[in-house]
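Late entry, written up from scratch paper. The run itself happened at the end of the previous shift, but nothing got recorded in the book at the time, so transcribing now.
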Amino acid sequence: WSLEEYLNARDKNRKEEVLNAIREGKLGVPSNYVDLLTQFASLEDLIRNGEFSESVMREIGIIPDRTDIVDVASAPMSYPTVLSSMGVKYLLHANNQDRGPFRLNGNMHKVSPFYWEGPDGSKILVWLAKMYCELKKVCGSPATIQTAESGLQMWLEEFERDEYKPDAVILYGQEADNTDLDPWPMEFIKKWNSVYEYPKIVPSNGSTFFEYIE
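Output as recorded:
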């Protein structure tokens, strides 16, 4: 379902609850409706893929500023131009490394964050995630203090280098795909932050992370 279809299937109170969560930044909505094999998509496909979120967000005075590509490992050279023309400033790309591990094998994730420039000079800020469902893959499933201690240490060691300037990294995604939302990760994060002063795990949507490092 698109965001608009989802909201129209709910009563007025539930619809307003979701819109208020978006207004307050508690719920982040990416500009793209679905993942596309973008190198095969026409220009019209790429543009129309952003219309479903934008049509709802426009009503509450918000322009989606982030696009997420999850699982599907493709992005055409024109994408920064297309996205920036829509008002999108950020791209979070988390592709499947089981079936196509070019990112891990080539260490491409280590260049993040970076500005990607399109043919017309437009730029978007990009994070190439190693994978998705990263919270469970790094901290355990279910996550515990003990499994997270070793997992986070190994995870963060890759960012301990002179050329990495931010003081934060993104651990992308708490859920696997095609599953129900699991309440446990939020409890785990509370437990972790009560035990450790550093590193803090801060729940956020992708846009909040980009704004912080920017």
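Residues 11 and 17 are 10 Å apart (CA to CA).
(Scratch paper discarded after transcription.)
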